[in-house]
Automatic annotation (TrEMBL):
Stretches that traverse the bilayer: none
Domain Roadblock/LAMTOR2: 9-100
Organismal lineage: Bacteria, Bacillati, Actinomycetota, Actinomycetes, Kitasatosporales
Designated name of the protein: Dynein regulation protein LC7
Length: 135
């Protein structure tokens, strides 16, 4: 697990280096636990991960109302005064969240996130938890 987390750290850094306006990146499980992060404060990353669990659930509920949808959330973008928030499905039971400042090219972040997920999606998975245990 430590080796996987170290591998994920350089991948997240590569995403942040490619888009300098990114302030924080969080990889989280579907139940809102932080798996990895880059930039920002660890406590903020934990709060973001917890909030993202609710957001991805809400997005899936909305997707279920679209007749041609498969019911899965793929990308949520929220423009906030001062910046942008992105949440993307990143693998089975895992999500990628990004906070960026207001000067970011909003489309570039989504494209880079997609590229990252396609390239390394197998590393961005989180097995389901049973009785509080992974697997």
């Amino acid at each position: 697990m430590i080796q996987q987390r170290a591998n994920m750290d350089w991948m997240l850094k590569e995403l942040a280096d490619g888009v300098p306006q990114i302030q924080q990146i969080v990889v989280l499980s579907a139940d809102g636990l932080r798996i990895a992060r880059h930039g920002g404060d660890p406590d903020v990353a934990d709060r973001l991960a917890a909030a993202c669990a609710g957001l991805q659930s809400l997005a899936a509920a909305v997707a279920a109302e679209i007749p041609s949808s498969d019911g899965r959330m793929r990308l949520v973008v929220i423009e906030i005064g001062g910046g942008f928030f992105y949440l993307m499905e990143a693998g089975a039971g895992a999500y990628l969240a990004v906070l960026a400042d207001e000067t970011v090219d909003a489309g570039l972040v989504g494209a880079r996130m997609r590229d990252m997920v396609v390239r390394i999606g197998a590393h961005l998975t989180s097995p389901p938890r049973h009785d509080g245990q992974a697997g």
